[in-house]
Amino acid sequence: MVSEATTGYICNIEIYAAEGKKLDSTIFSVLQPNLDLWYHVYQDNYYNNVAIAEHLLQRKTRVCGTIRSNRGLPTSFIQTGNNLKAGQSIL
């Protein structure tokens, strides 16, 4: 779902049921009208991974969100993240 930040108005929605379409394709089809405009996308850890974030940055779209450690994190993130305590974060 894509929604406007101030009002919460839903601009675009597509139900991902893991049938026939890959997760990446679903994300980019929902975001298509908003790419290349330097908007910010906030994702939870189900939708976020390094490859999607890199592709969105190439399409002038900023990404913020949590990411699962098994989603191909860069080595520097893994090493830094091992020292974090509950509630801490890194940039």
Produce a short descriptive summary.
This protein has 91 residues and is of the alpha+beta class. It has helices spanning 23-31, 50-58, 75-81, and strands at 2-3, 10-12, 40-43, 62-65. It has 3 helices and 4 strands; from the N terminus they run ββαβαβα.
Describe this structure in words.
This protein is α+β, with helices and mostly antiparallel strands. The chain has one domain. 27% of the residues lie in helices and 14% in strands. It is built from three helices and four strands. It has helices at 23-31, 50-58, 75-81; strands at residues 2-3, 10-12, 40-43, 62-65. The strands form two sheets. Strands 1-2 form a two-stranded antiparallel sheet. The longest helix is centred in the first third of the chain and has 9 residues, at 23-31. It is globular, with a radius of gyration of 15 Å. The model has no long low-confidence stretch (mean pLDDT 84).
- Rg is 15 Å
Distance between the termini: 26 Å
Contiguous runs where pLDDT drops below 50 for at least 5 residues: none
Percentage of residues in DSSP E strands: 5-15%
Which strand order spans the largest sheet, edge to edge or round the barrel?
Answer: 1-2
Average pLDDT, all residues: 84
How do the helices and strands follow one another from N- to C-terminus? EEHEHEH
Number of domains: 1
Shape: globular
Q: Can you count the beta strands?
A: 4
Structural class: alpha+beta
Q: What is the count of DSSP helices, taking H or I runs of 4+ residues?
A: 3
Largest sheet: 2 strands, antiparallel
